[in-house]
Design a protein that fits this description.
globular; 7-stranded mixed beta sheet; alpha+beta; two-stranded antiparallel sheet; Jelly Rolls
Length: about 140
């Protein structure tokens, strides 16, 4: 019983670490997608893992405390994504289109050639449909 009480106490203290992410509207060259905000290590580690599919207006934005080089992979992801790395000014600094799910380990890792503060995952094909390119600005206001 003491272990269960300790576990409940720990979860109560760290509740925001395990809570569901909130969302923000993100404008990509005139197109608006609703992005779940992944700002905790637990949310970032999970990402879109195990989700069966997403619609064209769904996305996820990874928010990091500082600009740095952040690598991504597609382990346990069920669908292809376009991944857009953004600097602190919300400008695209690197884009990986049609990043396909990992079906066999070792999984391919995509490492950008530039530092980013945010990483936006959208349904594959979004970059092409919006004509987004490196240097373009993406717009959002985090809560």
């Amino acid at each position: 019983m003491k272990r269960l009480s300790a576990a409940i106490f720990f979860l109560a203290i760290c509740g925001n670490v395990f809570s569901a992410p909130s969302s923000v509207d993100v404008r990509v060259n005139g197109r608006v997608v609703t992005a779940l905000i992944a700002s905790t290590p637990a949310q970032q580690a999970k990402g879109f893992m195990f989700k069966p599919k997403i619609s064209e207006d769904e996305a996820m934005i990874f928010v990091y405390p500082v600009e740095d080089v952040y690598s991504f992979w597609m382990k346990n992801t069920k669908f292809a994504l376009d991944i857009i790395w953004l600097d602190s000014k919300q400008k695209a600094v690197y884009i990986k289109e049609n990043f396909t799910p990992c079906v066999k380990e070792p999984c391919m890792v995509e490492t950008p050639k530039a530092k980013a503060r945010y990483v936006l995952e959208v349904k594959a094909g979004t970059v092409k449909k919006t004509s987004l390119k490196v240097g373009d600005r993406v717009y959002f206001n985090l809560p």
